[in-house]
Design goal:
Blueprint: H1 2-19, E1 23-30, E2 35-43, E3 49-53, H2 60-68, E4 75-80, E5 83-84, E6 92-95, H3 109-114, H4 118-121, H5 129-141, H6 157-170, E7 175-179, H7 187-202, E8 206-210, H8 217-220, E9 223-228, E10 230-236, H9 237-240, H10 243-250, H11 256-261
Parallel strand pairs: 3-8, 3-9, 6-7, 7-8
Antiparallel strand pairs: 1-2, 1-4, 4-5, 9-10
The chain binds adenosine-5'-diphosphate and magnesium ion.
């Protein structure tokens, strides 16, 4: 009985991997002796929005970077629609954590967005009018087309975040990975970003974002992935974001009062 169950699990796992826009299996990443991400399986569902949730230092950014091939895992792999990441990397767009970008670099907003077209422009970087039109369309989508000629370093945090989302849009990817897109942005930008992400979802794209505000997870996302170096839980928000799983992910660092405020079912 136990064996047949295990075999069935193995089979569904294989099926999941081939239909998932992004699946990681057995992912372990270490910068030093202690792993930042340990033996993690994650299976994103196509056309869904997934929040990655966990305490500081839980490995959320590392998980995204490894899923993109930016950091090399010690073990495990990422698969894009069942194919090895290496040949599929262009199907994934990435919006890094804003704090990790050097904003003193002198670049115009429109040039940042054009970077999203790098692959399309090829080695010669020869852009045609339609490329510029597309870049402007992407800026327009995030409400930033009037800022095209401004220096990126001169914008507010929220405006910079929108521009980086526009760069991701320019890439015409199928999967969007965003690292704390709402950190340090104003309420209007948060609304603008979530509207864009929801419109991507309505186009059938897959969105995953590291997210800190537990009060908005249920409103913004379909699925949640809880991590604290190891995977804690994964699945639909309603059944996965429970007081028990949050307590497990935050290891008691989240006050019960905070959890109570979320009005979740206990356990
Ligand atoms: P999170 O995004 O959940 O806050 P990170 O993935 O950034 O977590 O970090 C996970 C762990 O790995 C932390 O202990 C962090 O200090 C460590 N870490 C992250 N990036 C590096 C790096 N480039 N070099 C060394 N340690 C790192
Ligand atoms: Mg992080």
């Amino acid at each position: 009985m136990v064996m047949s169950l295990a075999a069935r699990d193995g089979l569904t796992q294989v099926e999941d991997v081939s239909s998932s826009p992004l699946a990681v299996r057995g992912l372990t990443v270490s910068y030093g002796e202690k792993p930042a991400v340990f033996s993690v399986d994650m299976t994103l569902r196509a056309g869904h929005m997934t929040a990655i949730v966990g305490p500081n230092g839980a490995g959320k950014s590392t998980l995204l970077k490894a899923a993109l091939g930016i950091v090399k895992p010690l073990a495990g792999q990422a698969m894009v629609f069942g194919k090895p990441l290496k040949s599929q990397r262009h199907r994934i767009a990435y919006v890094p954590q804003r704090a990790s970008v050097d904003w003193d670099f002198p670049t115009r907003v429109i040039d940042v967005v054009m970077m999203g077209l790098q692959r399309e422009l090829g080695l010669l970087r020869r852009s045609r009018p339609e490329h510029h039109t597309h870049a402007f369309d992407c800026l327009n989508r995030v409400g930033m087309k009037d800022f095209a000629d401004r220096q990126i370093g001169q914008l507010s945090g929220g405006q910079q975040q929108r521009v980086f989302l526009a760069r991701a849009l320019a890439q015409k990817a199928e999967i969007y990975l965003l690292d704390e897109p709402f950190a340090g942005v104003d309420a209007a930008t948060e609304r603008a970003i979530i509207d864009v992400l929801k419109s991507l979802r309505s186009e059938g794209k897959t969105v995953v974002a590291v997210h800190h505000d537990l009060t908005t997870v249920a409103d913004y996302f379909d699925d949640v992935f809880l991590i604290n170096t190891r995977k804690v839980a994964e699945g639909p928000v309603a059944s996965t974001l429970t007081a028990e799983s949050l307590d497990k992910a935050y290891g008691g660092r989240l006050a019960m009062a905070q959890i109570d405020q979320l009005g979740l079912a206990a356990g």
